[in-house]
Amino acid sequence: MRHGLAALVSGILLFTSFPPLEWSPAAWVALVPLLLVADRVSPAKAFHTGLITGLMFWWPSLAWLTRVSWPGWLLVGLYCALYIAGFSMTVSWVLRSAERRGWLGTLGTLVVVPAIWVGFEYLRSMVFTGFPWNPLGVTQAGMLPLIQCAEWGGVYAVSFLVIMVNVALFFALFPAWSQRSDAAGQLWSEARSVRALWPLLATLVAIVLTWNCGVAAIRRETGGPAGAPLRVVLVQLNIPQFEKFTEECWTAIEVRLRRITAASINRYRPELVVWPETAVPTFVRGVPSTEKLIADLLTQGVPLLVGTMDFEQAGDTFRYFNSSFLFDPERGLIQTYAKRHLVCFGEYVPFSDVFPFLRRLTPIEESFTPGKEQTVFRLDTSPRAFSALICFEDTMAGLARMAVRAGARLLINQTNDAWFDPSWAPRQHMLQCIFRCVENRVPAVRSTNTGITCFIDRTGRVTGILAPTRGRDPLPECLAQTVWLPGPEMPLTFYTKYGDLFAQACVGFALLAIGAAALRLRTGRRQADEDIAAEPV
Predict the structure, then answer these.
(1) At the topology level of CATH, where does 228-345+373-490 sit?
(2) In what order do the strands lie in the sheet with 478-485?
(3) With a threshold of 0.85, does the pTM exceed it?
C-alpha cells in the first residue's frame, strides 16, 4: 500500500511540474518517492510501481489527445508510462547491486541514475519514429541561466540535472524513510549525516557551475553583434477545428485571411508574413479562389509563407502533403517544404492497408505522405535564411538541428493546435520550441491557427506572445516584431555539430552500469553458493 502511494505521489508531482499547473520546482523532488520504493523492492515490483507513476503522469498530461482519439490517448499514455516503468526497474536492479559504502560509490550512483533516466528519455524520442514530448528538462524552460547548457547536451542535459537533484535528496532522506535490517542498511544509517553530504555537495556544485555558465552565455548572446534584421508578422486565425474544413466556411476563412494580412501589412510594413499550418482551407495549387487570394495580397509587395495542403498525382494515385509555400511578390511560388515527421493517428494511420479498422480510431480521412528533403528558404541574396517546422516538428530536436546545419538562421513553426482546444497542449507545445533556440543559438517564431503565437530569441526568452483566444473572430489576430538573424558565419554550437552525443553517452554509460550490476549480482550469487556448499553437513 505504501509503495503504491509513493508511486502515485511521484506521478502527481511529475504532472504538476508541466502545464497546465507548471509548478516547475515540483520536478526537483518528483522522483524521490519512486526512488525510495525502487531501492526497497525487487526489480519486478519496481517495474509495477514505475508503471503506476508513469500512468499517473502521462494520462493526465496527454488528456488533450482525447479530443482526437480516446483509444490513441490510452495507448500513447500507456506506451510512455512503460519508459518510466523501465527506468524504475533498472534503477532498482542497479541500486540493489551498487557499491555505496564509500563516497566514490555514492557519487557514482549519483551519476548513473540520471544517465538511466536520460537514456530512457532519449529512446522514447527515437523508437517508432519517436515521441519526444515533455522531456523532464522542459519543466525548467523559465530558468534561462539553467537551460543554456542545452547548447551542449540538448534538453537532456537539463533533465540530467533535475534527476541528479532527485537522487541527492533520495540519499539524504533514505534513512529517515525506511529502517533496513541488513548489514548494508546498518552501515548506511550509521554514517547517514556524512554520507548525505557528498551527493548534496556535488549536486550543488554542478547546479552553481551550470547557472554561472548560463549567465555568461546569456551575456555573450545578448551583447554580441545583432545580426541581420527581419521584420515579421505572424498571423493567428483563431478558426475552430470543426469549422476549418467545412466547405460552407471556406469563403469566410479566405475573407479573414485577406483582411488580417492586408491590415497587418499596412500597419507594420513587414518583410515577411507567416500564415499558420494549413491556413488555406483547401489547396493552393489548382484552386482559383486561393490562387487569387494570394496573388492579390502579393501586390502589396510582401513575401508570404503559407501553410497549406498539397498533392501529387501519379496515374490514379494521389499523395497528399502537409506543406509550407514561400511566395515572392515578383517571382510567385519560389520554394516549398513538405512536412517530414508526421503525427501517428493525426496525419497517418499505420498499417491501415492491412488493418482497415484502424481508420475508425482517428478523424483523418486520408493519410499524408512525409516529405524527404530539408528546405532552407531565402528571401533574397542576403544571408537571411530560415526553415519551416510544421506542427509538432519543433519537438523533434534533430529536425531543427539539421535545418541550422543546412544554413537556416531562423526557425519558423507553423502549427494548428485547434485540434486540442481548449486544453494545455498549446502551452506544452510552445515550451518545447524554446529548447530548439538554445540548442542551436538561433531565434524562432511560431504562427498558430489557435495556440500560442510568439517570438523566441537565441537564449530561449519569449520576447513577444499572442496567447490563445476564445470566441468567434477575436482580436488581436497578428503579432509583429523585428527578428535578428545570425549570419552564415555564425559558429555552430556543440549540439548543432554533434547532436545528441550527451544523451547517447548516457545510454552507453547506463548500459555499462547495468552490465557491472549484472556481473556483481552474478558474482554474489556464486559466492553465496560456494559458502553454502562449504558449510558442514
Answers:
(1) Nitrilase/N-carbamoyl-D-aminoacid amidohydrolase (3.60.110)
(2) 332-338, 317-328, 304-314, 272-274, 228-235, 478-485
(3) yes
